[in-house]
Amino acid sequence: MNEIGIMQGRLSPAVPGRLQAFPWSTWEKEFCHAATCGFEVIEWLFEADRYEQNPIWTQDGVQRIRQKMATTGIRLRSLCADYFMVHPFFRVSEPERTQSIAVLNRLILQAAGVGIKTILLPVLEGAGIRADTEKIQLLDALCEPLSLAIRHGIRLGLETELPAAEYRALVERGNHPALGVYFDTGNAVAKGHDIAAEIRVLGPFLCGIHIKDRTCGGPSVLLGQGDADFTSFFQAMGETAYIGPLVLETPSGNDFLALAGTHLKYVREYCNQAPAEVNSVRQVSR
Fold first, then answer.
1. Crossing angle between the packed helical segments 230-238 and 195-202, to the nearest 10 degrees
2. 65 pLDDT exceeds 70?
3. For 34-53, what is the mean pLDDT?
4. What is the pLDDT of residue 275?
5. Other CB atoms closer than 10 Å to residue 174's CB: what's the count?
6. Which pairs from 140-145 meet CB under 8 Å and 24+ separation?
7. pLDDT grade for 14, boundaries at 50, 70 and 90
8. pLDDT of residue 19
9. Please, which residues have CB within 8 angstroms of residue 5's CB and are 6 or more apart in sequence?
10. How many helices and strands in the chain, by DSSP H and E?
11. Is the pLDDT higher at 181 or at 271?
């Protein structure tokens, strides 16, 4: 069965005006909250803001992370590198591109030190691909990081807003065993994509999945209240060979622990069902 995890920041008070932010003052508490709620893993968040102060960037910070994992039993399996939303690998100067590659290389080494197996590289929104030449520039920039990643047992998962066939073609074009797909259910739904059909196309390359619900063209909402057809999605996911974590990237709020628990229960009910029984879960969970 897939482990179920949660993105950093969802087990802390929401930061005003931010959909997602590193929980600077509460990241250690989140390990305890995750264990109390019943999660198994946390997805680490690495942003451009104050990135050199992010605990995973320093050896002292890595040691503190290891201590929290040891005392709580909560593991890190993935890292969301939002840093590259601000510092992409294309549409930038050569010195900026070189700096982004250097940051990713070091991040791979630091992530390996806490057992992370997947680093999510967001290639969307302002950092999204607009031309075929940018696909070439992206894959070229990842050559050195991919060689480093495979030596440390890490995969680099691209998250894009491309339709599944084009998304898959991009990863196939990279032609590297350490390059994969990090799929986000909510973002795909917001683009009007059929998430069950998409996951079938992308299945062989999956290295991570974000569970999120959105309305088509709209914002994130509570699981089961948007346009994501999770019944079909989980059936389709069961047809793939994906055995990695399912990470909740769900909305937070004032009662963030209760919300996280509700979302965990929603996903766990799907995961606990045999394929023939999944159809009833959507109605029961609502």
1. 20
2. yes
3. 97
4. 55
5. 21
6. 141/89, 141/90, 141/97, 141/100, 141/101, 142/89, 142/104, 142/174, 142/176, 142/179, 144/101, 144/105, 145/101, 145/104, 145/105, 145/108
7. confident
8. 78
9. 34, 39, 40, 41, 42, 43, 77, 78, 245, 246, 247, 248
10. 12, 10
11. 181
Beta strands in the chain (DSSP E): 4-7, 41-45, 75-80, 118-123, 155-160, 179-184, 206-211, 213-214, 220-221, 246-248
Retrieve residue 143's tokens.
Answer: 């050559």
Q: Is the pLDDT of residue 253 over 90?
A: no
User: Is the pLDDT confidence value at 181 over 50?
Assistant: yes
CB 10 within 8 A of CB 252: yes
How many other CB atoms are found less than 10 A from the CB of residue 274? 7
- The strand pairing partners of 45, in sequence order, are 80
